[in-house]
């Protein structure tokens, strides 16, 4: 934050007084208050979006369908990200954008199921734009592109199996590819800006500029963090729900693989907070939906651990200790 304040200081002002560039306040306290307020607003909105998303995916009249949205949203309030959702970090904004992208994507699938093709195409592209914004906040947001990759591959397979080119299939494929391509901008645009500023305009250029793949993300992770050794929308309502879940499970599944093999142990809980499958699984376990009577680890123990971890994490975070 101090570095940010220094970057916003105009030439000739070194005392931290006066307005910053672009109308941004330069006082650390003002920045902290604004960041905390924004994080709380985003966290509140992400709870509402998760509720709406869960209601759309598990739409029904049984006990699980009625209770799951409320329980999943409540679990997000006490998720393992803890204090990072209240501090001036990107986790709350990322969760909001990622949940919103999933929500728009599910709406696109529902439009397709109802035969509303133009709204479906618009929502596919809109979801891609929202995921791109999420990716600029946290680079792991690019994993949401797996939704588009899955549907694009499914569309290609349908076209090949039909052995004929129909405009409806081509149109669907174009909208999906367009939406998925937009997500790439969320990771390439910040990389390009960083490369232009630190490699082309700086003299001498930074050390990572000469790498085979000059990624500022990889350099920041390796330089500032230490790492541990790696320890279709057709048919019945049930089929539609399963189709949604199959797609929405892809990003967290890939995230789990990356977390086990290469992610920093301190950020796994933080980045996982932006994916709904975690809350759906735990909420369904609480409701006893589709589960056995005995658990190796009971859901109430998981919830207790989440709450206790949040309390301990906040205390350590305020003292500038890990996981800060």
TrEMBL record:
It is found in: Endoplasmic reticulum membrane. The keyword Endoplasmic reticulum applies. Its EC number is 2.4.1.-. Its main location: endoplasmic reticulum. InterPro entries: PIG-V/Gpi18. The keyword Cytoplasm does not apply. One of its GO terms (biological process) is GPI anchor biosynthetic process. Keywords: Endoplasmic reticulum, Glycosyltransferase, GPI-anchor biosynthesis, Membrane, Transferase, Transmembrane, Transmembrane helix. It is a multi-pass membrane protein. The chain crosses the membrane at residues 31-53, 65-86, 92-110, 170-189, 271-290, 302-321. One of its GO terms (cellular component) is endoplasmic reticulum membrane. It comes from the Eukaryota. Pfam families: Mannosyl_trans2 (PF04188). Pathway: Glycolipid biosynthesis; glycosylphosphatidylinositol-anchor biosynthesis. One of its GO terms (molecular function) is alpha-1,6-mannosyltransferase activity. It is an enzyme of class 2 (transferase). PANTHER family: GPI MANNOSYLTRANSFERASE 2. Mannosyltransferase involved in glycosylphosphatidylinositol-anchor biosynthesis. Belongs to the PIGV family. This is GPI mannosyltransferase 2. The lineage of its organism: Eukaryota, Fungi, Dikarya, Ascomycota, Pezizomycotina.
């Amino acid at each position: 934050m101090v570095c940010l304040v220094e970057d916003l200081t105009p030439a000739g002002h070194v005392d931290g007084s006066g307005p910053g560039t672009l109308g941004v306040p330069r006082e650390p306290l003002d920045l902290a208050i604004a960041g905390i307020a924004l994080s709380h607003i985003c966290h509140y909105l992400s709870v509402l979006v998760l509720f709406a998303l869960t209601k759309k995916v598990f739409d029904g009249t049984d006990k699980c369908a009625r209770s799951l949205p409320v329980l999943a949203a409540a679990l997000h309030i006490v998720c393992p990200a803890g204090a990072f959702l209240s501090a001036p970090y990107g986790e709350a904004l990322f969760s909001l954008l990622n949940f919103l992208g999933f929500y728009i994507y599910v709406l696109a699938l529902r439009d397709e199921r109802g035969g509303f093709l133009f709204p479906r195409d618009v929502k596919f592209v809109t979801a891609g734009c929202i995921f791109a914004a999420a990716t600029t906040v946290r680079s792991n947001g690019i994993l949401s592109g797996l939704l588009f990759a899955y549907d694009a591959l499914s569309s290609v397979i349908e076209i090949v199996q039909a052995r004929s080119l129909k405009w409806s299939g081509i149109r669907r494929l174009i909208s999906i590819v367009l939406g998925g391509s937009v997500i790439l901008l969320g990771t390439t645009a910040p990389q390009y800006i960083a490369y232009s500023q630190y490699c082309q305009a700086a003299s001498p250029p930074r050390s990572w500029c000469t790498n085979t793949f000059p990624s500022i993300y990889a350099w920041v992770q390796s330089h500032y963090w230490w790492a541990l050794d790696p320890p279709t929308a057709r048919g019945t309502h049930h089929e539609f729900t399963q189709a949604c879940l199959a797609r929405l499970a892809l990003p967290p599944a890939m995230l789990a693989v990356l977390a086990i093999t290469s992610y920093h142990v301190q950020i796994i809980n933080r980045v996982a907070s932006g994916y709904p499958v975690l809350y759906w699984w735990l909420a369904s376990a609480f409701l006893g939906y589709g589960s056995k009577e005995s658990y190796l680890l009971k859901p109430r123990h998981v919830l207790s651990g989440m709450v206790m971890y949040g309390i301990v994490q906040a205390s350590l975070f305020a003292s500038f200790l890990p996981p800060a």
